[in-house]
Design brief:
Elements: H1 12-15, E1 38-39, E2 48-53, H2 68-76, H3 91-94, E3 97-102, H4 113-126, E4 130-135, H5 141-152, E5 156-160, H6 180-186, E6 196-198, E7 211-213, H7 215-220, H8 223-234, E8 239-244, H9 266-275, E9 281-287, H10 298-326
Helix pairs in contact: 2-10, 4-5, 8-9, 9-10
Length: about 325
Amino acid sequence: MALKDSAFDVDNAITRKGKRGMSYENAFGGILSFMRRNYTKDLTDVDLAVTGIPFDQAVTNRPGSRFGPRAIREASTLQPCDAPYGWDINPLMDFDVVDYGDLAFDYANVAAFPEKLTNHISEILGQGSGVLSLGGDHYITFPILRAFVEKFGPIALVHFDAHSDTWPDDDVSRIDHGTMFYKAVKEGLIIPNKSVQIGIRTHNDFDAGVHVIDAPQVHEQTPKITASQVKEIVGDHPVYLTFDIDCLDPAFAPGTGTPVWGGLSSAQAAGILRDIRGINLVGADVVEVSPQFDASGATAIAGAHAAMELMCLYCWNLRSKRNDSKI
């Protein structure tokens, strides 16, 4: 059935009446919000706010993930215009999801950044909305976790990555994307025995006490088995999920600062994310997309898909909580 010309009206991100609805804009035109959601700072009755954190001053190798939020938003226009595959919900139609825009900060005042980010996330959470963040390098998860712990208490962390990011570093003032989960454990933000890292394939002598399902183990078993292990580890504890795009093999996501071969395929990551539905997800992020290292755009596309899966996970959990409250 042919769509009416009005279906192709551009800039739904600023012209849509209400927060719900699909968008059929041309992928190559219009304002770039994530999944064409409304751009707004009004979080009244909002279920989930997507926000960009264009920060990459903590990297140890190649910078460029400051451009990640913009690239992920652009790539999200390529997502199918119908319900997400493999889910029995459609967050774009069934929930109030908005694009809150990016965190504004002084790039030259790096020392002030962590508190600025924590306050940014706390402001969103304080208005009753969930938060899905688009990075940015992986350091951003540390200040974000502080905001979530203020609301939920110590968190179970589900961490997709090639690297553990738990290299010892007792200088809290250092801003480094490879040591922040060491600090998060030491600071009591995350509960190690309720947390799990997936896809690890770099060596670290320090044992943070976090469960590890490394990349070889993921390859040796099915995504369903990996998902089952994750769910057993976190139980019903509040979960924050962080998805570093370098958990994927460089064949699927070359546009990142520290690519490592032997990683997960897109299919494995998608399967695990869909099969962990039911975890008590309270927030999430996608980080380390550096689009300038990938002329094909495949990395940003993977980031957009991962973010959409996380949106589905969050909304699926939210629906379950609402249904339980009606019993």
